[in-house]
Design brief:
Mean pLDDT: 92
Structural class: mainly beta
Largest sheet: 6 strands, antiparallel
Distance between the termini: 7 Å
Number of strands: 8
Low-confidence stretches: none
Number of domains: 1
Helix content: under 10%
Shape: globular
Strand content: 35-45%
Number of helices: 1
């Protein structure tokens, strides 16, 4: 990607558990998930709820630094995620090109 811009606050945050996500959000956005298999891995970013299963792994040499995954909004933008080694926390940012 050329001219990639990444905006992040670079802070570690804790994932939310399923019971911390509003019921209407679970029903409208995550109704495909099995409740027993997805008890954590949720987070809210800029007013939108995400789950780890929405992110694709970033291949080495992609030009996206040390980020672990991305969820594209469009061809030119999306959300990046970096996972802590213990899997309990994340950093999130937005990319545009």
């Amino acid at each position: 990607m050329s001219d990639l811009t990444i905006k992040t606050d670079n802070r570690w945050k804790n994932f939310k558990y399923r019971d911390e996500v509003p019921a209407d959000i679970l029903a409208s956005q995550f109704d495909y998930q099995d409740e027993e298999d997805t008890i954590d891995g949720f987070f809210e970013y800029h007013g939108t709820w995400y789950h780890l299963d929405q992110f694709m792994r970033i291949p080495e040499g992609s030009g996206m630094g040390d980020w672990d995954g991305y969820a594209g909004d469009s061809y030119f933008s999306g959300v990046l995620i970096k996972l802590a080694s213990d899997g309990e926390q994340y950093k999130v940012g937005r990319y545009t090109s």
